[in-house]
Amino acid sequence: MIWLLYAALVMISGYFVLAPLFGKTNNFDLGLCAETELDRLLDRKAVNNKGLNDLEFEYKMGRLSDLDFKQLETSYKNEAAIILQGIEQLDVPKIEKEKGNKKGLSRASTKCPACGAETAPGKKFCADCGRRL
Ligand SMILES: [Zn+2]
After folding, report:
1. Where are the chain's structural domains?
2. What is the CA(41)–ligand 1 centre distance, in A?
3. In a structure prediction context, what are the per-residue pLDDT tens digits for the chain, which is 133 residues long?
4. How many angstroms separate the alpha carbon of residue 109 from the centre of ligand 1?
5. Ligand 1 midpoint to CA 105 (Å)
6. Which of 83, 112, 121, 125 could lock onto 107 through a cystine, CB 3.0 to 4.6 A?
């Protein structure tokens, strides 16, 4: 019975490895497990990046023709552009920036206890002497 499990596993992992090469990444319905629109887009971005890496790997291994590679690479890059556009439209950088500013205000006057050098907020080590902050 165990071999059946192995066979199923091999087929499933094989599908996930090969699917991006032959179809669109949209085949993965990641929207189901994502909580927010941002999560969904970040998941799509991660899958797309992985697909592109796999594609480059397959190409370097000589398993893809130049034409196939170019076509698939273009579709991945188009997808990446669409995802990035979607993320920008969510206005997330602005929110993150505001969070960062608040953090910066509360920890603006951080000084290294060893050498007295000013350190950037959120840093774990002093840039001047390397002491842990
Ligand atoms: Zn220091």
Report:
1. 2-90
2. 40
3. 777 778 888 888 888 777 767 655 444 454 455 578 889 999 999 999 999 999 999 999 999 999 999 999 999 999 999 999 998 888 655 555 555 555 444 445 578 889 988 888 888 888 889 988 8
4. 14
5. 21
6. 121
